[in-house]
Structures are given as C-alpha cells and as structure tokens.
Amino acid sequence: MERPTPTDVEREVTSIDMIVSKGDAEGNITYTNPIFMKISGYTQGELLDKPHSILRHPDMPKVVFKYLWDNLKEGKEVVAYVKNLCKDGSFYWVLAQVRTAKNPDGSFRNYVSTRKSVTDNAKAAISELYAELLRIEQEEGVDASEQALEAFLTEHGQSFETFNQFMIQLNK
C-alpha cells in the first residue's frame, strides 16, 4: 500500500472518541474499532494484517517508538503522544495507552492500544519536543535523540520511569 503524502489538515479526535486496535507480536493490526476506521479513513480490510506503522506520520521521532517497543517487550504499559497519518494525508493526534494482553496461562495474546483526544496545550508542548527530537535524529541518530528525550524529562523533574504519568499530566 502506498503511503499518502502528508497535508496540513488535522482531523479532530473528540473527547468522546476512543480509538482501539489490537496487534500481534510483530505489531501487525488484528482488530480496529469503527472510530479508528472513521478517523484514519482506512477500511478494516486495508488495515488488518498491516503494521501499525502504516499510520506513522513523518513528524514522529523514531525514539518514541523505540521507547514504546522496548517497554512493551518488558511487559510494561506505555503512554505516549502519537501523531498519525490518515489515508488522505491528513493527520490526528492521540494520547495512546498500549499494553500487552496475556492468555490465562501467562503467554502473549496481543497488544491492545486505546487512544483518546489530546488537549491543545499538550499538543503544542509535544509538537515542539517531537520536532526537536526529530531534528536530532536526522542529524545525529536515534541514540542522540534518546539522550535528548532523557535530558528533557530530567529538566522537567521526570525520568523514563515516570514517563507515562508525565504524558498523562500534560493532557490535563
């Protein structure tokens, strides 16, 4: 599937919208709810068995997804802001909460992601941070971007251990 060309058109995710998807161990989409399809512009057939990265907007720094996957692989829940790319090139911002679901025997079942709307203040703060992280990645690589993210968190009295709570607090 060809990736759309990004535009400056933002799609609104309202405070009552709850976007839900599930993914397999490789991050391929195995379920989407109707709100997900409505906002992204994709049909379920276009999304199923495709990587979640099909929605990745080029403004998103890779370090955010490195953090996400590193933590998910350790069985930790992750909360992060994500700018997604719609089928028509428009975009939408969400606060994503991603966790690992387990079978009764403790084995991996799937990843579950729920996403909700983002406040304008959070969007402004995160857009600025992500633009800087992306610039650093392009000039110096993902490791340098990770160091910059850690420095940002430290500057705000936070750490990778408190990252999830910090992301939630920003959205208030």
Give a quick precis of the structure:
The chain is an alpha+beta fold.
Return the CATH class: Alpha Beta
Total domain count: 1
- How many strand segments? 5
Tell me roughly what share of residues is in helical segments: 25-40%
How large is the radius of gyration? 16 Å
Number of helices: 6
Helix and strand run: EEHHHEEEHHH
For the record, what is the CATH homologous superfamily label? PAS domain
At CATH level 3, the topology is Beta-Lactamase
Strand content: 15-25%
Description of the structure:
- The protein is of the alpha+beta class.
- The chain has a single domain (19-170), classed as 2-Layer Sandwich (Beta-Lactamase).
- It contains 6 helices and 5 strands.
- It has a 5-stranded antiparallel β-sheet with strand order 2-1-5-4-3.
- A hairpin with a 5-residue loop joins β1 and β2 (29-32).
- α4 (120-140) packs antiparallel against α5 (142-155).
List keywords for this structure.
single chain; alpha+beta; 172 residues; five-stranded antiparallel beta sheet
How are the secondary structure elements laid out?
Elements lengths: L18 E5 L5 E4 L1 H7 L3 H4 L14 H12 L4 E8 L5 E12 L5 E9 L3 H21 L1 H14 L7 H8 L2
Antiparallel strand pairs: 1-2, 1-5, 3-4, 4-5
Helix pairs in contact: 4-5
